[in-house]
Every structure is written in structure tokens, then in C-alpha cells.
Design brief:
With 309 residues, the protein is α+β, with helices and mostly antiparallel strands. It is built from eight helices and 16 strands.
């Protein structure tokens, strides 16, 4: 039963959906069946949907695993639904009522809930989300007259998940001759103790090179080093605020950034991100703020940027 499952939920919204997303995130963090909610923040509606779908698409759906799901919110709920559904094994549905949630969980195994930030008030969204979490696949629902599905529909639903997962047909991994990607294969990482969600592996000492990865939603509080460093994003999405220069940089796959020695900078990761970094000298780091202060500053800036659009 869905009531026995534990959930990890990724959430994101555009500017129209942010207030409702924030309310739903707060509600879900207090839900007894929810182990973790990762708030991926605010972006263009298609980018917000993609950020969530990337986390749900490869997730483990085995019975003993924490189930990964997503919540996406835009003005109507339609745009985020369209783009979330571009990812394999993502079944996103816009729900305007608890009955919608029961139907789509029962019939479609919906794992990404799309909501309208304009049309759906927070209390209604909370009821929809609760129903969406509580309803198992193949449950009696309004579409079945709230009765168990007849035998022919049960047979259809028995085979549907495997057939749905095969669309589109999976493609084999591309051949890669990238030296950095080959280096990363099989690498053992060590946690970055003062940066929750971060791991790194130093691959060369003085001048030093390292491969670093951070989980989506992670934040690096404002800090500085005694060395300047070059980094190249291998995959993912992050934003760096150079507080010394009062500049910010949005970085995605293939982007490069140099940060001079002593410059104080703060970082937010919007997706699982990996990057290669090189600096002169030995590793050091000096924090200029705590994690709570960093989260507050980033949330305030992202919210202000969204409201200005």
C-alpha cells in the first residue's frame, strides 16, 4: 500500500507557481510518509520541470526503496506538465482536485504532480498532494466507480508499467573518449564535511586537481580560499555568487569559471552537479557564513529575481 511507502520528493516552480510551491513544500515536509523534500527553487517553467524530471526519471522503483516523486508548479500547471513528460519513466499529471489525483495514481502511476499556482489555493493543493501520496496504483477510483477494477482492466494494468517504461525505447550509452569522464569512472569520493551534499576526490597534488560532485539542492555557504581556482562543469546546473566582485554566474554543462584567490563566493546547486577543479597549492577553505545564513540569502535573492520578472 502507498501508506507503507516512504517518499523523497523534488519540487520546483516558475515565478507564477512559487508561492504555491513553497506552501506545498512546507506541507510535505511535515507529512509522516515523506522522508525528504528537495526544493530545487524557481526557474523558467520548462527548466523547473526538467530539473525535477531529471531526478525522477532514473529513480529506483523497487518495493523496498524510498520512492522518488516530483512536484512542479507554474501558472496553469500545463507547461510544467508538458516538459516533465519529455523524460522517460516520468508520468506527470496536472491535478485540480483530489479526484484527479486518485484517478491518475490508479490508472497512470503518476509520479510527478503538476499544480496551478493561479487556480489552486494552498489548502486545496495540500489535499491533492495528500491524496496523490496515499493512492496506490490500481486502486479503486472515481473512474472505476470507486469499485475494484474489473478483471480485464486488472490484466491491462498488470502489464502497463513495463510497457510504459519502454517508451521511448532505451538507447545504448554513447561511446565516450572524454579523459575526464574516463577518470571519473569507478572513482571513490570523500565527503566534504563542512559542505553537506558535497563529495570530492583529489587526483593530483600541487598543483592540485580534483573531481567534485554535489547533490541537487546543496548550498556552499560563503567562503574563500588562499588560492585561485579554475573549474569546468561536467554536468549539472549551479549558480555562483562572487560576493567580493558583486557578480553572479549561472553554470551548466561545459561552462568554465575562474575565481581569484581570496574572493568570497557562495554556491547553489539546482541539479546533481559534477565538475573538475584545479588550483595552485594545497587544499584549504575558510567559511565566511553559516549554512542557514547562506540558505536565507539565496532564497531571498532567487525570490526577488522571480518577482521582478
Amino acid at each position: 500500500m502507498a501508506a507503507d511507502r516512504r517518499f523523497k520528493i523534488f519540487a520546483a516552480a516558475d515565478g507564477f507557481g512559487q508561492p504555491l510551491k513553497d506552501a506545498v513544500v512546507a506541507h510535505l515536509r511535515a507529512h509522516p510518509a515523506v522522508a525528504e523534500v528537495v526544493d530545487l527553487g524557481v526557474d523558467k517553467y520548462y527548466a523547473a520541470a526538467a530539473a525535477v524530471a531529471r531526478q525522477v526519471s532514473p529513480s529506483d522503483s523497487s518495493p523496498d526503496a524510498t520512492e522518488v516523486r516530483g512536484v512542479v508548479v507554474c501558472g496553469t500547471g500545463a507547461g510544467v506538465c508538458i516538459f516533465a513528460n519529455k523524460y522517460p519513466r516520468v508520468y506527470a499529471t496536472h491535478c485540480a482536485s483530489p479526484a484527479d489525483a486518485v484517478n491518475t495514481r490508479s490508472i497512470n502511476a503518476c509520479n510527478v504532480l503538476a499544480l496551478s499556482g493561479i487556480a489552486t489555493p494552498p489548502d486545496a493543493a495540500a489535499a491533492i498532494a495528500d491524496t496523490w501520496l496515499a493512492t496506490p496504483f490500481r486502486a479503486p477510483c472515481p473512474a472505476s466507480g470507486d469499485a475494484p477494477w474489473p478483471e480485464d482492466i486488472q490484466r491491462f494494468l498488470d502489464t502497463a508499467p513495463e510497457e510504459m517504461a519502454a517508451i521511448p525505447e532505451p538507447q545504448g550509452p554513447p561511446d565516450s573518449a572524454c579523459a575526464i569522464c574516463c577518470l571519473r569512472s569507478g572513482m571513490e569520493f570523500e565527503p566534504v564535511g563542512i559542505m553537506p551534499g558535497g563529495e570530492m576526490r583529489i587526483v593530483r597534488e600541487s598543483p592540485t586537481s580534483a573531481y567534485v560532485r554535489f547533490k541537487a539542492g546543496s548550498v556552499e555557504p560563503a567562503h574563500h580560499h588562499t588560492f585561485g581556482h579554475d573549474l569546468v562543469v561536467i554536468k549539472g546546473k549551479k549558480k555562483v555568487w562572487n560576493l567580493t566582485k558583486k557578480e553572479s554566474y549561472s553554470l551548466v554543462n561545459g561552462d568554465f569559471l575562474f575565481t581569484p584567490a581570496g574572493d568570497v563566493h557562495r554556491v547553489k546547486y539546482f541539479e546533481d552537479t559534477e565538475f573538475f577543479i584545479r588550483w595552485d597549492g594545497h587544499w584549504d577553505i575558510f567559511l565566511d557564513e553559516d549554512l542557514d545564513t547562506a540558505h536565507s540569502a539565496i532564497d531571498a535573492e532567487l525570490g526577488a529575481a522571480s518577482n521582478s520578472k
